[in-house]
Amino acid sequence: MDFDRTAEYAAHHGEEEGKKMRKTIWVIFWILLAVTTAEVSLGLVWKDMNFAWTFVKWTFIILTLVKAYYIVAYYMHLKHEFKNFIYAVSLPYIVLVLYLIVMALTEAIYIHGEDVMM
Amino acid sequence: MAGHANTVDTKNLWGGGFSPFNVSYGKIMMWFFLVSDAFSFSALLISYGFMRHRFEETWPVAEDVFTHFPFMHGDHPLLYVALMTFILIMSSVTMVLAVEAGHRMKRNGVILWMALTIVGGLIFVGSQAWEWYHFIHGTELGALQLADGTIAQWIDSAKNAFVLPDGTEFSGAAAAAMIESGKEIYGANLTVNEYGVPLFGDFFFFITGFHGTHVFSGVVINFIIFVNVLKGTYEKRGHYEMVEKVGLYWHFVDLVWVFVFTFFYLI
């Protein structure tokens, strides 16, 4: 049945290593929980504390990327894969984000229907 | 296996006989599927951002729309969706613990953690259904859709005065004529939305609906693999990589929610 030789690449580890991995898993869980709590509290208090919306918005985006990093790197184990595989998965998104930034900076004026030729 | 990397001639990695990624075929394909699936979600969120800026003045604030919490009265902005986020993170933890138990070939561990993951997933889908119900149902007061399509909010339950999105208030005879030509609306669907532009409802239904479909199919796939674990299929096979593969899918669903949570509910 194992025509694609999955068994050769399937990961195994012992009790000792498993203990360490479980510890990492729970540490990441507390990080994710702390970041989410921070996001929600910021969402609830920023108006009363008179924070600037731009600051709040970018804090949300950066905290989201932090959470995404921990999920992909540790829970999805990507950090411990071969480097060429990490690039194969992440490069398309790096290119997409760069493309979106260029679009937002150069083409975003069309959004309200202004005629830039005038 | 890690030992492989040392025994293989790195110059000839692509020559065959060894996976250049040191990952099995099935896992690579799961990853590439997730890469492409994430592009679908990116497209939805990007178009959401675009339209939101386009209709900035009349776009409802998610915080003011999703304020319900089960068994509690009054306004509780963000609380319910924060709970949903917590449930999904929690089920991601149980999933990764199931994968870890699989690496040690501990069948009972895999059974326990996978069962908890499935329960977490079902609670999340249920929560989403509850939120949809409240969004479709709307508020008790409803809103007034004027003849030109503008959504005006009632000032009080007497329903003879209303306020436009730009803050202009109408009452008395001027209001009465406009109320006459407009119509009362409650809740939201694909064509009307008492909270503001209908597009907001469309994006809400499509983005959370697309994500909810993923959660639901994730629960179904998890359940199938769970049954296989119970039957001892992977014990016989000698490895629990199937659990790892569905785990990747499940974490991806969690990952997408992290982005939906930020871009739909927080920002």
A few lines on this structure:
The complex is a heterodimer of chains A (118) and B (267). Chain A has 118 residues and is mostly helical. Chain A is built from four helices and no strands.
Can you walk me through this structure?
- The complex is a heterodimer of chains A (118) and B (267).
- Chain A has 118 residues and is mainly α.
- Chain A folds into 2 domains: 80 residues; 37 residues, no CATH class.
- Chain A has 4 helices and no strands.
- In chain A, helix 2 runs antiparallel to helix 3.
- With 267 residues, chain B is mostly helical.
- Chain B has 2 domains: 191 residues, Four Helix Bundle (Hemerythrin (Met), subunit A), CATH 1.20.120.80; 40 residues, no CATH class.
- In chain B, a hairpin with a 7-residue loop joins strand 2 and strand 3.
- Chain B is elongated and about 85 Å long.
- The N terminus of chain B is likely disordered.
- The interface between A and B is large, with 50 and 59 residues.
> Which CATH class of the largest domain in chain B?
Mainly Alpha
Global outline of chain B: elongated
Major sheet attributes of chain B: 5 strands, antiparallel
Shape of chain A: flat
Give the topology:
The complex is a heterodimer of chains A (118) and B (267).
Chain A: H1 6-9, H2 15-45, H3 53-75, H4 83-107
Chain B: H1 2-7, H2 25-54, H3 62-65, H4 79-103, H5 107-137, E1 143-145, E2 151-154, E3 162-163, E4 169-170, H6 172-181, E5 183-185, H7 198-231, H8 233-237, H9 241-266
Helix pairs in contact in B: 2-7, 2-9, 4-5, 4-9, 5-7, 7-9
